[in-house]
Amino acid sequence: MGIIRTAFSLMAGTLFGVYLAQNYNVPNIGKLANSGFVIAKHIEENYRRPSARTQIDDDGGVSK
After folding, report:
1. Considering the entire predicted model, what is its pTM?
2. CA distance 17 to 26
């Protein structure tokens, strides 16, 4: 009895999701997550501390 109830819940949820996606303006979660990762990567690259091997010269240049 448990597998029938689980299968019915899965099927009903899938059909409801398809109905919503076709009839309403539902955001694309994959695209939203990808843009979030791009923003996080940009912030990380801008605010990351310099590594221990990289040294800043007296004139402001960076040497390795």
Report:
1. 0.46
2. 10
- Hey, what are 29's tokens? 């979660």
pLDDT of residue 61: 58
Helix (H, G, I), strand (E, B) or coil at 57: coil
Query: H/E element holding 10?
Result: helix 2-23
pLDDT digits (tens, 9 = 90+) for 8-49: 999 999 999 999 999 999 888 999 999 999 999 999 988 887
CA triple 49-51-52, angle to 5 deg: 125
User: What DSSP letter does each residue of 14-52 carry, written as one string?
Assistant: HHHHHHHHHHS----HHHHHHHHHHHHHHHHHHHPPPPT
